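Exam prep: given the inputs below (a chain plus fe (ii) ion), describe the expected output before reading on.
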Amino acid sequence: MKLLQREFVRQVPVSEAVGWWNQWDHEHTLVVHGESWLDGHLLYEDERTCIAFVTIRVPIFSFLTSTATNVNLKYDAHTMYTINLGLFGIPSITKITIHEDPPDHITHHTTYTFFLRGWRRLLAPLMSPMIARWNERVWQEDLPLKLRRQKMLRHGFRDFVGLPEKLADRRHDGPIECRLPIKRLPDSPIETGRLLG
Ligand SMILES: [Fe+2]
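Solution:
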């Protein structure tokens, strides 16, 4: 068994809650990451778990697609894991940590670990740049969402309510929270495949 690990660290001027919102808002993946995420079926979710079938386009080898089982676990206030069984039956664990310091500024760590067994060990040199490319693309696609949500929350925006009526009220200096599971409309495309619960 060979372990392939890649770690990426980034800084972004948003609150930790916005960072987690982006990780757990499964609805945006099929739209914002539509080049890479081809299909998603949410099977189950609660305040610290999400299980889904997802179909992705493989980076570099874009003619290949892979349908995988994704299990997301919120481990503690600053840590989540994604456990994935994907292309060629290769298991992987993605660990994400988010720490906010100073306020409205986060350090975002992503560590991918792939478990390569037998002939799959030969894939390591190919997979390493693929992981970097995947991570960079997803990060760049998510960045405007995070910055926009942070800005609007600081202007007092509330989900399914909107901005305060009066311009003078459009300011929120208090804490920003992210409650799981993220609320969404019942006819959201991601809901159509719900098979459990
Ligand atoms: Fe995203």
